[in-house]
Design a protein that fits this description.
signal, transmembrane transporter activity, ABC_Gly_betaine_transp_sub-bd, alpha/beta, D-Maltodextrin-Binding Protein, domain 2, ABC transporter substrate-binding protein, 3-stranded antiparallel beta sheet, 16 helices, 2 domains
Length: 334
């Protein structure tokens, strides 16, 4: 009788312990940022945390500055899945020092990628066009839309921060000396549309773009090598500044893109935190997802089913086998 009672107590305590572990995650708020790569990652996190870890996960609207400030000052939301941390690096680092937030891992293992690009079909025909020397030697290929005596270099739309960097690098590379003129596309849609138009017609194109984006998922583009390497110090101190008087050539350094979580969440949900530490994407993969998302006109929630169904080899590496089974079962019931 005593042995039976002890066994019953052991089983009861084990059940309570299991229940506690399953419910420790509690309610989790996830910032759903206002661009597609961020929204698909937020939805993936919501699904996996809910079905794999038993969290009561919900999405809340987010944006870089507002979300970062709220996490540091108010402890909410719990998770920012795609945070371009250079945008408020000092404030984030201070929040880490004060024990309010922490970096959970790199969301994009390549970092945010920027550069000057040309279509791959041009490089296949002439490999020198993968270099700035080759671009300058063949400037006449890049026809100006209004002036036949000049060549076209597409930059960021007015008002975007990257217009400062692209303009400074245009001067650093002395592109004007080779006949290149700055072409403002007027909007992000205008810039992406110019690449799509060039690709459809197999025309020459040279300009700025970034990843991860649907455009670089749809169109095979080659990043032009300046032959300079990366001078991160000069890039930050001069190339990014409107008053950069002596710009020098440098490739764009990758931008840190992290998952940021509150310390309170990290403390109460270590297993969920381990998933976020492991969860990461390569730009090529994210470009592919974003291209699919755009072609299908899919929202973040619908894109999760596509990702979990077609990229099991990727996401199953982020969790243990038991958790993976729970997620697969939930996907099969969609």
């Amino acid at each position: 009788m005593r042995k039976t009672f002890a066994t019953t107590l052991f089983l009861a305590s084990t059940s309570l312990s299991t229940f506690a572990n399953a419910s420790e995650c509690g309610t989790v708020t996830i910032a759903d940022m206002s661009w597609n790569s961020a929204t698909i990652i937020a939805n993936i996190d919501r699904f996996i945390l809910e079905h794999g870890f038993g969290c009561d996960a919900e999405l809340v609207p987010g944006d870089t500055m507002a979300t970062g400030t709220a996490m540091i000052e108010k402890g909410q939301p719990d998770i920012a899945p795609e945070f371009w941390s250079n945008a408020m690096k000092s404030a984030l680092d201070k929040g880490v020092e004060e024990g309010r937030i922490r970096y959970a891992g790199a969301t994009l293992t390549d970092g945010g990628e920027e550069g000057f690009w040309v279509p791959a079909y041009m490089v296949e025909k002439d490999p020198s066009l993968a270099t700035i020397a080759g671009i300058k030697a063949n400037a006449k290929l890049f026809k100006h839309p209004e002036d036949p005596e000049k060549s076209a270099f597409m930059i960021c739309p007015s008002g975007w921060n990257c217009q400062i960097t692209t303009t400074n690098l245009y001067h650093a590379l002395n592109l004007a000396d080779d006949g290149f003129d700055l072409i403002d596309p007027g909007s992000g849609a205008g810039l992406s549309g110019s690449i799509a138009k060039a690709y459809e017609r197999k025309e020459a194109w040279f300009g700025y773009y970034w990843a991860p984006t649907a455009v670089l998922g749809k169109y095979n583009m080659v990043k032009v090598d300046f032959g300079s390497g990366i001078d991160e110090k000069h890039f930050k101190e001069c190339i990014t500044q409107d008053d950069c008087l002596e710009p020098k050539p440098t490739m764009f350094p990758p931008s840190a893109v992290d998952t940021v979580v509150t310390e309170e969440f990290a403390a109460r949900a270590p297993e969920a935190l381990a998933y976020l530490n492991a969860r990461a994407f390569k730009n090529a993969q994210m470009n592919e997802l974003l291209a699919w998302m755009e072609d299908e006109q899919a929202d973040g929630e619908y894109s999760v089913e596509h990702f979990l169904t077609n990229y099991e080899d990727t996401w199953s590496q982020w969790v243990d086998s038991a958790t993976a089974k729970k997620i697969k079962k939930a996907v099969s019931e969609l």
